[in-house]
Amino acid sequence: MDRVFIEGLKVDALIGVYDWEREILQPLEFDIEMATDIRPAAASDELSLTLDYFSISQAITTLVKNASFKLIESLAEAVSQLIREKFGVCWVKVKVSKPGAVPNTRNVAVQIERGSLSSSADQIVSGVAQ
Ligand SMILES: Nc1nc2c(c(=O)[nH]1)N=C([C@H](O)[C@@H](O)CO)CN2
């Protein structure tokens, strides 16, 4: 299965467990991997036949700016749900990094994978993804 990536998407967010974190915005970074069949877009050179990484980046940014979760786990779930439901992505990997959160570290993060790769293969065989 082919992939479309969004790497290093930076958004300032209201996020965190502690009281002081509810008063500030903190930098988060998103790495997204989405399974899709890029052959129809490649054959036609047509943006509407692939996953538009610009539109998806904008949608993630809007979601994150409007969210106020405590845990980056909750935000990762919300982002994966958005990508799967709004953009019809059958399988997605979402990594949410909070690089300033822990002293003496380069980064802390969570990563989730949601959906099924086999269902996208089924769609291609049945012609849905053509
Ligand atoms: N697995 C997680 N651990 C922690 C989180 C989190 O979102 N997921 N959050 C915090 C605090 O908000 C922290 O970022 C403050 O520095 C602690 N652990």
TrEMBL record:
Pfam families: FolB. One of its GO terms (biological process) is tetrahydrofolate biosynthetic process. It catalyses: 7,8-dihydroneopterin = 7,8-dihydromonapterin; 7,8-dihydroneopterin = 6-hydroxymethyl-7,8-dihydropterin + glycolaldehyde. It comes from the Bacteria. GO terms for molecular function: dihydroneopterin aldolase activity; isomerase activity. Its EC number is 4.1.2.25. Pathway: Cofactor biosynthesis; tetrahydrofolate biosynthesis; 2-amino-4-hydroxy-6-hydroxymethyl-7,8-dihydropteridine diphosphate from 7,8-dihydroneopterin triphosphate: step 3/4. Residues 4-114 form the Dihydroneopterin aldolase/epimerase domain. SMART domains: FolB. Belongs to the DHNA family. NCBIfam families: folB (TIGR00525), folB_dom (TIGR00526). Catalyzes the conversion of 7,8-dihydroneopterin to 6-hydroxymethyl-7,8-dihydropterin. This is 7,8-dihydroneopterin aldolase. It comes from Oceanospirillum linum. The lineage of its organism: Bacteria, Pseudomonadati, Pseudomonadota, Gammaproteobacteria, Oceanospirillales.
